[in-house]
Design goal:
Blueprint lengths: L4 H19 L3 E7 L6 E8 L2 E9 L5 H14 L3 E6 L1 H6 L6 H17 L6 E5 H10 L3
Parallel strand pairs: 3-4, 4-5
Antiparallel strand pairs: 1-2, 2-3
Length: 140
């Protein structure tokens, strides 16, 4: 089988998210469809079959247009809180090479776009470490 480093990274995150969901009393689904199957979200935590938290895992450098698609999917889903997770490990392994400064510029640019769109109460842009910190504080 051909190696799939970025897909493997996404699956690693999904396994962690499933474990955390169970610990916090949620059910978890991968590749969850939005209303009318207009889009899919990498991972969604549900309570009583209703989406509460949604997670998009960004495992490589992408254009802002791709992130806008993730934001649109979040809006369609209507979860209480959404997370755009940037994988430092994935960016290091992506075809574009690794540059910490470029990564941070890209990461902060997306955070600023979320802020300008006034979506900061609904969408968090984070690394795995920041996400883990939020989940540890989560009481639902």
């Amino acid at each position: 089988m051909k190696p799939r480093p970025l897909k493997d990274i996404i699956e690693k995150y999904q396994r962690k998210l499933e474990k955390w969901a169970k610990l916090k009393g949620f059910t978890s689904e991968r590749e969850y469809y939005t209303k009318n199957k207009c889009g899919r979200i990498d991972q969604v935590w549900l309570k009583n079959d209703k989406p509460v938290y949604a997670f998009e895992i960004e495992a490589s450098y992408r254009t802002r247009k791709h992130y806008k698609g993730s934001l649109f999917n979040f809006i369609l889903l209507g979860a209480k809180r959404n997370f755009l997770i940037f994988s430092i490990e994935g960016c290091k392994k992506s075809n574009y090479g690794w540059d910490k400064g470029e990564f941070m510029n890209h990461f902060n640019s997306i955070k600023n776009c979320i802020k300008e769109a006034k979506l900061t109460k609904k969408v968090s842009v984070c690394t795995e470490k920041e996400l883990k910190s939020f989940i540890e504080r989560l009481t639902e």
